[in-house]
Amino acid sequence: MTAVTSGPIVAAPATCKRPIGLLLVAIPVLMVIWLVIWPIISAVITTLWVKTPEGSAFSIETYRFFFSDGYSLSNLSMTLWTTGVCAILLLIVCLPIALYLRFSTSRVSAYVQGLAIFPMFVPSIILSFAFIRVLGPNGTVDLLLNAVNLPKIRTPYLTPRGPVIGPVWDNIPLTVLILLSGLGAVSNQSIEAARDVGAGRFAVLWHIILPRISNSILVAISFAVLGIFSAFTLPYVLGPAAPEMMGPFMQRTFHELFEPRTAITCAVVTFGFCIVFGLFYVRSVAKNRTT
């Protein structure tokens, strides 16, 4: 019989695992390159290179027209205004909800969480129809006010306020979940220690909670801004015909005015603004990985 000698187990070198890891991420990376990066590059090339009888020539005429056209600038201004107002309202609405869900121990918090996440399961077109039936002309609110002999409300439907209410309600679930995830890093011991030295609720919020969830707030705002800035359904159904947000403006330019190059220019401009908030998100993720 041969004796079996036992010895230390030698781990496989890390270089053997790298090809497997690269293969696992190859398909998602290729999909991102195919569906996201390449269309962006193609759009930029399409807007900068114009076909002429002599061939192709470099031109920024479409961008010069966009930033000199009053109607295009008014649509961009409305998009920026709507996005900024929605981001502020989301933070005002969702931060108290997330704080309540994090520190509450009552059974009511489970129902509050269910109500906060409920908009995630409602399609945008259904939300638009409900908005019109409730706050639109001769909607539910008008009927209730008329029943008690009160004047009608000034409906936000088809006004610049319409695209604000819809996206805010639609983005509440994701914003609450991101903020709630960040609040999970705030320990009860740190809050109790602050209270032991006499810190009030506002001091605890300002000096203990907010500094620890600043990255989560930045991520939540970035996601909300990216979604609202490029939204189409809610601004198209609820917003005014003029000025309009960039999503409906691009669709109308492409399908009704038959100007695909101008529509692509609008898309590139929109991407330019969105990439700024995307960089904030990437920076936040990279900062979390290094800490």
List keywords for this structure.
two-stranded antiparallel sheet; 291 residues; 2 domains; 2 strands; mainly alpha; globular; MetI-like fold
From N to C, what is the helix and strand string? HEEHHHHHHHHHHHH
CATH topology name of the largest domain: MetI-like fold
Q: What coarse outline follows from CA principal-axis ratios?
A: globular
Strand content: under 5%
Strand line-up of the largest beta sheet: 1-2
CATH class of the largest domain: Mainly Alpha
The assigned CATH architecture of the largest domain is: Orthogonal Bundle
Unreliable spans are none
Give the N-to-C terminal Cα separation.
55 Å
The CATH superfamily label of the largest domain reads MetI-like
| Biggest sheet layout | 2 strands, antiparallel
Task: Indicate how many domains the architecture comprises.
Answer: 2
- Share of helix, binned: over 70%
How many β-strands, per DSSP?
2
Mean pLDDT: 84
Question: Which structural category fits the helices and strands?
Answer: mainly alpha
* Number of DSSP helical runs: 13
Round the Cα radius of gyration to an integer and report it: 26 Å
What does this protein look like?
The chain has 291 residues and is mostly helical. The protein has 2 domains: 19-59, no CATH class; 70-290, MetI-like fold (Orthogonal Bundle), CATH 1.10.3720. It is built from 13 helices and 2 strands. It has helices at 14-48, 61-66, 70-103, 108-117, 124-135, 140-147, 162-183, 188-196, 201-212, 214-229, 233-238, 246-255, 260-290; strands at 49-52, 55-58. The chain has a two-stranded antiparallel ribbon with strand order 1-2. The longest helix has 35 residues, at 14-48. The model has no long low-confidence stretch (mean pLDDT 84).
